[in-house]
Each structure stands twice: as structure tokens, then as C-alpha cells.
């Protein structure tokens, strides 16, 4: 048996494109070929279960070997093998899917979806690293003869009689000079560990040294000797393939430690399992968040039938859940997946929506089942929930019932609870309920205390997402405004049209304004005299709520960079009813007036953490001089 021919392709230049550019990472060749080998073993197992193969299955496994001297890598399996006619059909006709035909034929059989790979394009990833590829195979079919296929990377091939005497297939890659890095045990071990830790078929790569008992010495102590044993890659059992009812919390935590050995225990997890309208399994963990949330991305691993695909899952997992950890496995996502294909695939959108729904259901369940425990976790899970409410309308509709607002007393309220708490006392003259919030309780304590004197409540909004969350809530909540507690004096923040007159005459007001403007002497500060309670601070420095919010959002990103580059602009509110103002007016020494005004202004800056550098040093020196 010997035949030469031309591989059937429709475009003259498609073959070099497939060889070089189909995949972005050339290590993918090993993922594709091992997956195809595992596929072949799954097929023979299925045929045996259906009574269509009556021979001995033996120990079904895939083996990977390399020969540095011969410059070859070999992937072997004892699956169903191929005849020469099947080689022509599945290998020479590029992109014909043997797996598709097989699944269609046995679509009513249980677990037909276990088949992993697809012959065709996946196989040709071998030429990314090879000058020559050989197939040596023997079909399971009665009377079949061994067949060999050889191709040097051109469109020419040769089929001849093979040398294999047992059922299965060997793929031999003659590695090209540019890819000799793969002729290294550690390199291959790393790739196999990455992609096949959870492969459902035993995968062996060479041997490893192990210790076994070898009797006892004269004192009765156990003796051990070193032996070479098969190096099995996939020893760990994937938890997502098991039924939740069969698992304990310890099982989920142990699996988490296998995935992320150096991480703290997760807060909780969600076990995904759906078979219609798409197939999806997995476990998603909610981690304890660190401040630098960006470095925690890419912790969700995407698998297809237990073969690792990628940890870039932004099209599959909603953006707001990208900080989750865990595993998603879906056979509806092909192995030769590319980012552009993911975005276009309808199943991806369905999976994205399903994950959003399951996360919302889990959070709602936790909230209703044990609110106290839920509140204890809120500082960690709040960022997920708030981000989700901003970015996903469907998630917002579900999350509004279990979203919590936390005040400076560390008490938690649902959106409805908080509205009912403050509506009677924090409603302004126009009928708007005003929610006050702080982003830094330490720096804004003076403003918080002013609010507390009025019996107002102040929310804590100090997470990275809160700048956007505040604006989103204001848009969603009817007749409700959110104002940062240092955006104005307290009477202006919640304007109840209660006019308090200051005691200064028109001339005195003008004089005090001039004294402070001269003492401050900076264009970014606009001085205004206001009628405040004598108990309030003599000087209050604020930034307009709109500008402050836009700058906060610009710092977090989100299309507000224009505001982030705008110069700061502050209002300096002088309390016309404070005794310091009277003291300034009482002195006739212009220098003393300026010093008092400057000291009061700097105290206001200091209370907000705005006094730095040389200005802070000058303030300290003036204060020492007054002692």
C-alpha cells in the first residue's frame, strides 16, 4: 500500500497561514495533538460501551515522549486508530471534523460530548513547530492494516503501509530548528501541566523517581528504595465534574488550594452546572480582595472538556466578575478558540448571561439565609455587586434588594432601609432626599461632625468603584441626591431654606473678604462670607460636588479624563458668625489681621489633609511663634 497525493484545500495560500498564524502561541500544538489523542481513546471507550467494539480495551492512556538527539516529539494513544481511507478523509481534507461526524452518529448515546478534539485544523498546528510530520496508526476495525502518513509541510503527502502492531495512533513531529526549545523535558512538562492537569484520560510523560518500602533494617526501621514509575500528569480530580451533593466545604477549599496555593481561603463559591441551552460546568470562588484589584485579574481558567484553554475570559465572564477565581468548563467553546471568535459566538453571550444570573441568585440566597454573615463579607463582595449594578442592567434589577449601604458607624442598610432611615430629616426644600457620603472619614472628620450635629447620617463610600456607583445610584433613585460631605457647608448640602443671618454689616463683610483674599492670595480659592452657626468652624474649604465627583471618576477611569486634567477650584466659606471674625475686625494691625486669617485658612486645609509641603512648614512655624 503506497499512495502520493495533494492535500485537499480550496485556497492555494491557506496552508502556510494555518501552519504559522492560526494560533498566537506555538505551544498550542501540544494541546491540540494531546486533545486529539484523548479524543481517540474516548471514542473507543464509547464504541465498547455500545457493543460496537468487543476487543480488549486495555488501559486507555495517552503518552508523550521526545528524543532530543533525533529531534522528535511523539504523541501516542491506544484509541480507535485510523485506516488509510480515514486518514484521507480526516487529515487530508483540512477542517473536516471527525468529532462532529462521530457525535452526530452517536448523539443519543450517554456522554457523547466527552469527545474533546476535532481533526483538521487542530492537527495542522503540528506544522507550527515541525518540518516533517508522520502518522503511524492501526484502526480498531477487524482486518485493518497499519497505515502511515507523511507530510513535509507542503500540500504534498504520502500514505504507505505503517509499522504499528497495536490499536491506536502515533504522531511523530520532526521539530524544526526554530522550535528546538520544545526538545526539553522541563519545557514539555510545564506545557503538559498547564493544559492537561484535569484531562479525563491518563496522560503519561516519561518517568519519575519514587520511593517504595524495601523491608526493614536490623533495628526494625523501614527501608526505602528509589524506583522509576510513570510520570502521570493528570492526577488531580476536577471538582467541577462532580455533583455538588457529593461534595463538602472541605473539598471546595482543598480544590481552591490546588488552583491558588498561596491565596487566603475564599469567602464562598458557586457551583455551575447547566446542560441546556448550552453545556457548562465550573466553580467560581469569591476571593478576599486586596487594594490593588488589577493584579488579581485573569484568575478564572477556561477549560473545554477538562482541557485548559485560557485564563483570559473577559468575553465569557461579565466584566464585573473578572476578579473572581475558579474554573469554567464548556464543550461549546472549541479548542482552537480565538478572541474574535469568542466575541462572535452566540454561546458565549448565553454563558455570560447565565453566570450573571447564577451569581445574583447566590448572593440573594446568602443575604436571605444569614444577613449577619453577609454583612460581615460585604467589605469584600461589595465591589463586585456595585460594579455589576453599574455595568449590567439585569444584574441591577436583582442586586438592588441585597446591595448594602454602610455608614460611618459601620451599620448596614439595604437601599430601601436607608431611604426610610433618612428621608424625614435629610429632605431639602425641593423635596430631594440627600444622602451624604465620605470617601475618607479621617480627612473629612470635621465635615462629618458638622453633619452629626444636625443629626444627619453619613455613608462610607471609600472603595475604588464608589465614585461611579454614587452617580449611578443618583440616576437610579427617584428624587434622591448623593453629596460628598465636604462638597459644601452642611446647610448648603441639605438646603432647607432656613436662612441664618450673619451679624456683619455690608462694609464688614467686604473688609473680611478682602483680608482673607489677600492672606490666601491664590486664584484657585474663592472667598465667600456665609451665615453659619457660631459652633461651626471659622473657615471651611470645599470643592463643588459635581467637580469633585468628576475628578474622583477621572481618577478611576471611565471617560472623565477631561475633568481630571482641569485645575482644582475651591470655595472658602468664612463663617460670619464665628468669634474669630470678630477678633480680626477688632484689631487695627493689618499684619495681625492677615496672620489670623492665614492661620484659620491653613487650619481648615490641615483638617482635610490639603496642607502640604512648604505651606505646612510655614503653618507649623507660625503656630510655634504663637505659643
UniProtKB/TrEMBL annotation:
The keyword Cytoplasm applies. Keywords: ATP-binding, Chaperone, Cytoplasm, Nucleotide-binding, Stress response. Belongs to the heat shock protein 90 family. InterPro entries: HATPase_C_sf (IPR036890), HSP90_C (IPR037196), Hsp90_fam (IPR001404), Hsp90_N (IPR020575), Ribosomal_Su5_D2-typ_SF (IPR020568). ATP binds at residues 32, 36, 77, 82, 97-98, 169, 339. The keyword Ribosomal protein does not apply. SUPFAM superfamilies: ATPase domain of HSP90 chaperone/DNA topoisomerase II/histidine kinase, HSP90 C-terminal domain, Ribosomal protein S5 domain 2-like. It holds the Pfam family HSP90. Transmembrane segments: none annotated. It comes from the Bacteria. GO terms for molecular function: ATP binding; ATP hydrolysis activity; ATP-dependent protein folding chaperone; unfolded protein binding. This is Chaperone protein HtpG.
Amino acid at each position: 500500500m503506497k499512495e502520493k497525493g495533494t492535500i485537499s484545500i480550496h485556497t492555494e495560500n491557506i496552508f502556510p497561514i494555518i501552519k504559522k498564524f492560526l494560533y498566537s502561541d506555538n505551544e498550542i500544538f501540544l494541546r491540540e495533538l494531546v486533545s486529539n489523542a484523548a479524543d481517540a481513546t474516548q471514542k473507543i471507550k464509547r464504541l465498547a460501551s455500545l457493543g460496537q467494539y468487543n476487543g480488549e480495551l486495555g488501559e486507555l492512556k495517552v503518552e508523550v515522549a521526545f528524543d532530543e538527539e533525533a529531534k522528535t516529539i511523539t504523541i501516542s494513544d491506544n484509541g480507535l486508530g485510523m485506516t488509510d481511507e480515514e486518514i484521507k478523509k480526516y487529515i487530508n481534507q483540512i477542517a473536516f471534523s471527525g468529532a462532529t461526524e462521530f457525535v452526530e452518529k452517536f448523539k443519543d448515546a450517554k456522554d457523547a460530548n466527552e469527545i474533546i478534539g476535532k481533526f483538521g485544523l487542530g492537527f495542522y498546528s503540528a506544522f507550527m513547530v515541525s518540518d516533517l510530520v508522520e502518522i503511524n496508526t492501526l484502526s480498531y476495525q477487524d482486518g485493518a492494516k497499519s497505515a502511515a502518513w507523511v507530510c513535509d509541510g507542503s500540500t504534498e503527502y504520502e500514505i504507505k503501509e505503517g509499522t504499528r502492531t497495536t490499536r491506536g495512533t502515533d504522531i511523530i513531529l520532526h521539530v524544526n530548528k526554530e522550535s528546538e526549545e520544545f526538545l526539553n523535558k522541563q519545557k514539555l512538562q510545564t506545557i503538559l501541566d498547564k493544559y492537561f492537569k484535569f484531562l479525563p484520560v491518563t496522560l503519561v510523560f516519561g518517568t519519575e523517581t519514587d520511593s517504595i518500602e524495601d523491608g526493614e533494617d536490623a533495628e526494625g526501621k523501614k527501608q526505602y528504595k528509589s524506583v522509576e514509575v510513570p510520570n502521570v500528569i493528570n492526577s488531580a480530580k476536577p471538582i467541577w465534574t462532580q455533583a455538588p451533593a457529593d461534595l463538602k466545604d472541605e473539598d471546595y477549599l482543598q480544590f481552591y488550594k490546588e488552583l491558588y496555593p498561596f491565596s487566603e481561603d475564599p469567602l464562598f463559591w458557586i457551583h455551575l452546572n447547566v446542560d441546556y441551552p448550552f453545556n457548562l460546568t465550573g466553580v467560581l470562588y469569591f476571593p478576599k480582595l486586596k487594594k490593588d484589584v488589577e493584579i488579581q485579574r485573569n484568575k478564572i481558567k477556561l477549560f473545554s472538556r477538562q482541557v485548559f484553554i485560557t485564563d483570559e475570559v473577559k468575553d465569557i465572564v461579565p466584566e464585573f466578575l473578572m476578579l473572581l477565581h475558579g474554573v469554567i468548563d464548556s464543550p461549546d467553546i472549541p479548542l482552537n478558540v480565538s478572541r474574535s471568535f469568542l466575541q462572535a459566538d452566540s454561546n458565549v453571550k448565553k454563558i455570560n448571561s447565565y453566570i450573571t444570573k447564577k451569581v445574583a441568585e447566590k448572593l440573594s440566597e446568602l443575604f436571605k439565609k444569614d444577613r449577619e454573615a453577609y454583612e460581615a463579607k460585604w467589605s469584600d463582595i461589595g465591589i463586585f455587586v456595585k460594579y455589576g449594578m453599574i455595568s449590567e442592567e439585569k444584574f441591577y434589577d436583582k442586586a438592588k434588594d441585597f446591595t448594602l449601604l454602610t455608614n460611618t458607624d459601620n451599620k448596614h442598610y439595604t437601599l430601601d432601609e436607608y431611604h426610610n432611615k433618612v428621608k424625614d430629616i435629610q429632605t431639602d426644600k425641593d423635596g430631594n432626599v440627600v444622602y451624604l457620603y465620605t470617601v475618607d472619614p479621617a480627612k473629612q472628620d470635621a465635615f462629618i461632625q458638622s453633619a452629626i450635629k444636625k443629626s444627619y447620617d453619613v455613608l462610607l463610600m471609600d472603595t475604588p468603584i464608589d465614585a461611579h456607583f454614587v452617580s449611578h445610584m443618583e440616576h437610579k433613585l427617584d428624587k434622591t441626591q448623593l453629596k460628598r460631605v465636604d462638597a459644601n457647608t452642611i446647610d448648603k448640602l441639605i438646603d432647607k431654606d432656613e436662612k441664618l443671618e450673619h451679624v456683619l454689616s455690608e462694609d464688614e463683610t467686604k473688609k473680611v473678604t478682602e483680608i482673607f483674599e489677600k492672606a490666601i492670595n491664590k486664584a484657585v480659592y474663592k472667598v465667600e462670607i456665609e451665615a453659619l452657626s457660631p459652633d461651626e468652624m471659622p473657615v471651611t474649604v470645599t470643592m463643588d460636588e459635581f467637580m469633585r465627583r468628576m475628578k474622583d471618576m477621572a481618577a478611576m477611569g471611565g471617560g472623565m479624563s477631561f475633568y481630571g486634567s482641569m485645575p482644582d477650584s475651591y470655595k472658602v466659606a468664612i463663617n460670619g458668625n464665628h468669634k474669630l471674625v470678630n477678633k480680626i475686625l477688632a484689631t487695627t494691625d493689618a499684619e495681625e489681621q492677615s496672620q489670623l486669617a492665614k492661620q484659620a485658612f491653613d487650619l481648615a486645609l490641615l483638617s482635610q489633609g490639603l496642607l502640604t509641603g512648604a505651606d505646612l512648614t510655614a503653618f507649623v512655624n507660625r503656630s510655634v511663634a504663637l505659643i
